[in-house]
Design a protein that fits this description.
406 residues; six-stranded mixed sheet; Molybdopterin biosynthesis moeA protein, domain 3; Molybdopterin biosynthesis moea protein, domain 2; Molybdenum Cofactor Biosythetic Enzyme, Chain A; homodimer; alpha/beta
């Protein structure tokens, strides 16, 4: 019998048994860093903005020169030049003077605020009337208001988004330290498998797990090496796994649904390394194996595609995240269950759903078929988990959906 | 004054004024189709499985041969061979006979169910005792139970996930019809801008919008053509926009924060085509322009990076989705607001947040700074929208977060 673990125990084993791989740092040009994992904390090295800056079109001036002014008694200031966009602010501004400045333009030394164009009037002959008092600091931001040297901008392990790319551009980081992509080997096993491009003969089916798991891994930001289809032959599997371990940081095997093959994978892992786990109390996905050979994780996934997908999504991705030092961020989306789902077997059950918007409400239709080979896969938008101590979920129940890689 | 539209009006203009581009279909190998937009409905062309299949290890047999049997009075059947994984099931099974079959193996004609190995006993001499009656159809799936010719598997416009790739593999689709990637031109305008790799001189800042918008577009699955930084020179901008329109399906311009530049973009669009929109009642992002030149959308985004990002995310991506025939699926995540946010200006307000998990609860910390140039961008995990008729959101309020491209 399998020594079956709960999902929590499995995640704990992953967390305790594996570590972030050393030496995975590489420098990439900013335009290639999107979606990559940040390899170190990013601190600003400079002030942003690096000069006092106007936030409006108007006149830079000294606030105290406008105290008490009004529309009927405007403050009359002498215009001392004009600041152009992208240019230095010019010499220090004297008392009783003002200088025209565009939004985003530099505010000169001496000035401590900007009067909005709308609250001024050009009297000609270099005289500007200010019709409303301006407070010190008004309508401007000061050097370093946004960012100052040493400020932590982005944390190690973050998956870089478009806005992070913007932030890195702003502080002048054309090269970004990111985590090198892992290589993960994918092996499909089974005498019954043929490649997706081939016509299956009697008793054969096409390999679904190879292309599907590769796609899941690629979407997660790793490189995959596809070792194709290996028949249920222990010696052959041992050879292919050996090659995969030489070339990759981790290896996924899937399949082996016949009795002998089921044992072969765990026997090989025990021979070549150590078995950390044999069986998870989930449905689908119970016959899952996790081991370590030469320090590298080797996962034996079930042959059933839906089972293989859930196990990869729920356990393999966190394992790879651990190796990469990638921060795991998983958020759930709330929806209403459109139809009751039964679950009554002492295992956590993962259930795929199709989503439908009804006004503001999100309705989740559980996907279910007798065999579930493709029907469980195609067109699902999300999934949820029914706890092992729960006998199912009723129609109308509020559920928490995972929508990653959907 | 700007003729300002509400966000709903803007989305309606986008929906009415633009159409799916014709001729964007291309065939890609399955392993390159992840994340691409499906160009047509995918119907199954065959049965899956294509043969009756066992779901257990056991013996294929005729159900009626086991009726009334028990542990004390087992049904004694003659073993007529063994079915191997991936092989044909062999000749039709005769009455009173059974044939060994592995999980996933083919069930022969004549048999209508499979007895589990655990409920049988091998008496030797080719005699198998079945200890428990088996119902017709038990422990097997029939040809086409999962998929049959003509079944709709995946809908046009869907962004292909790893499980969709699996489903396409299962039905033998090594080539997949997807929507060709759009080309979108990105132009940054402003005399004050320098490239991210350059040291800004007095009064200059680095171009944030170019790299940031390109990354957002790439994450959305389009190709970007970067036209670099164009100074606030109407003639120059007109030339660059003209080239971009020749090469691209849509063009984004951002910047132009000085008074003259603000008008230049809308003047150019009106000259070269038609202006559809000038100003959106949102914060940040009010000074947004949408036009059409030679049938192609041209968007003028604000220069402020956070404003440019929100407008691109909330309006430009749906516009591009429309051109691509991409199904828009946006789900929100529920969180609690950690700190009150004020909003009091008759405009819908987009607010970035950092997310923190406290046990099962998700806490959203609004990001706010005086200038917000980088602080609004770096490290945000999600955003939410405060309606224009709302004076803000209180600490502890339940909010609905958008987490796309985060």
């Amino acid at each position: 019998m399998l020594n079956v673990k709960t999902p929590e125990e499995v995640l704990n084993i992953i967390d305790c048994e594996f570590r972030e791989l050393p030496g995975l740092r590489e420098l990439l040009p900013l335009e290639q860093a999107l979606g990559r994992v940040l390899a170190e904390n990013i601190y600003a090295g400079e002030y942003v903005p690096d000069f006092d800056r106007s936030t409006v079109d108007g006149y830079a001036l000294r606030a105290r020169d406008t105290f008490g002014c009004s529309e009927s008694i405007p403050a009359m200031l002498e215009q001392s030049g004009e600041i152009l966009m992208g240019q230095a602010a010019g010499p220090e501004l004297g008392e009783g003077c003002c200088r025209a400045v565009p939004t985003g333009g530099a505010v000169p030394a001496g000035a401590d605020c900007v009067a909005m164009l709308e609250h001024t009037q050009d009297f000609g002959d270099g005289l500007i009337a200010v019709l409303k008092p301006v407070a010190p600091g008004e309508n401007m931001i000061f050097r370093g208001d946004d960012v100052y040297p040493g400020k932590l901008l982005l944390k190690k392990g973050r998956v870089l988004t478009s806005r992070d790319i913007g932030a890195l551009a702003a502080i002048g980081r054309p090269m970004v330290p990111v985590v090198k992509k892992l290589y993960v080997g994918v092996i499909s096993t089974g005498d019954e498998l043929v490649a997706p491009g081939e016509e299956p003969k009697a008793g054969q089916v096409r390999d679904v797990n190879g292309p599907m798991l590769s796609a899941l891994l690629v979407a997660f930001g790793v490189r995959t090496v596809n070792y194709g289809i290996v028949p249920d032959d222990e010696e052959k599997l041992r050879q292919v796994l050996g090659s995969a371990l030489e070339q990759c940081d981790a290896v996924l095997m899937s399949g082996g649904s016949s009795v002998g093959a089921k044992d072969a994978a765990s026997r090989i892992i025990e021979d070549m390394g150590e078995l950390l786990l044999h069986g998870i109390a989930i449905k689908p996905g119970k016959p899952t194996i996790l081991g370590r050979i030469e320090g590298k994780p080797v996962v034996g996934l079930p042959g059933h595609p839906a089972a293989a997908w859930f196990v990869a999504r729920v356990f393999v991705l966190p394992l790879l995240a651990k190796l990469m030092g990638r921060q795991q961020r998983s958020f759930t989306v709330t929806a209403r269950l459109a139809r009751s789902v039964s679950a009554n077997h002492g295992r956590a059950q993962y259930q795929g759903v199709r989503l439908e918007k009804q006004g503001e409400k999100l309705i989740a239709w559980p996907i279910h078929s007798k065999s579930g080979l493709i029907s469980d896969l195609a067109g699902a938008d999300a999934y949820f988990c029914i706890d092992s101590d729960c006998e199912g979920m009723h129609e109308g129940a509020e559920i928490q959906l995972s929508v990653g890689d959907f």
